[in-house]
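forwarding from the other thread:

> can someone predict this with G3I?

sure thing
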Amino acid sequence: MALAACGDADDRPPAPPSGPIPVDDDPIAREAYSKAVGAAVWSGHAREDDAYRRRLITHFTSVTPEDGMKWAIVNPQRGEYDFTEADAVVEFAEQTGKRIRGHPLVWDLQLPDWLEDGDFTPEDLEEILRRHVAELVGRYQGRIAEWDVVNEPLADDGSWEENIWYRALGEDYVRIAFEAAREADPEARLFINEIGAESRGPKSDAYLELAGRLRRDDVPIDGVGFQNHATGERYPSQARIERLFGAVRRMGLDVAITEMDVANAGDGRQASAYRAAATACAEARNCTGLTVWGVTDRWSWLGRDAEPLLFNGRGRPKPALDALLMPFSD
Ligand code: G3I
């Protein structure tokens, strides 16, 4: 999987340790926006960076744990679980009335060594996958609005990403993951999620075809996530996003923008990119919300200098903030 605009995460300051997030501001009401407006969150940043925490509490109505639910963090050793980070984000969201997106259940990055390096049969891996989904989804049953069940299943050319799951189980790992998630939490809306599938091309075509096939094959899928990691040079237009959302609606599925950021863009183009996605989501009946991948530039996975988010490194709003919020505020 090639990360779009993969930044130099090494220039991020080390993530502060996990822990409870204090609620020391008046949370924005869920109803303030017509759709969920979310941010990816690491509890340590919220606890130690006042600007990050204030903006998170007062501007966002949804959260996604940025890394707290990833396999290497929740299940570092076989049979051992550590939900400290995931619990901190979930409990903060519940204290502040925010929606929660669970992310991710099945992916090929940030897997623990015991899994990556293990010598497992396909049957072993199916059991490991089912147990992981049951453990993680079951822990938060009834509290998560949407899960990214399978994250980034495709390669850039639209073929299957040959990850550990595909190599062992073929494309059937997707059905197994969705069925295990539905069984563990019948209330949660179950999404597939992809990077770089917004622009025209083989990946976008293959992603839409996969979503439609899953739906037709009665796999318990409810929605399709488009991450929309964009740059000032390359971001999808409102019309392009509307076409994608319409194609998914005709499948009978929801859509969401799940991880948006707009790197290395001047204020004008950055605001245009956010406005395009927000307007398309606000006007699409089947769009459940738009999540940006972080709160302030200081802690972006792309590094502070990419300046991809709605608030700068010190937490001051950029023109992109109003450009994104206006379509949800009518
Ligand atoms: O938790 C360890 C810590 O113990 C260790 O000391 C430190 C230094 O090695 O690494 C920490 O883990 C890092 C983790 O973020 C938590 O901060 C990983 O090295 C680092 O690779 C990881 O990066 C995350 C990346 O996904 C890989 O999981 C980024 O924060 C996160 O923004 C990024 O988000 C992904 C989405 O989940 C899926 N879509 C693409 C998006 C961007 O890559």
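The pocket of G3I is lined by residues 3, 9, 15, 66-67, 70, 109-110, 151, 195, 227, 259, 301 (CB under 6 Å). thats all i got for now
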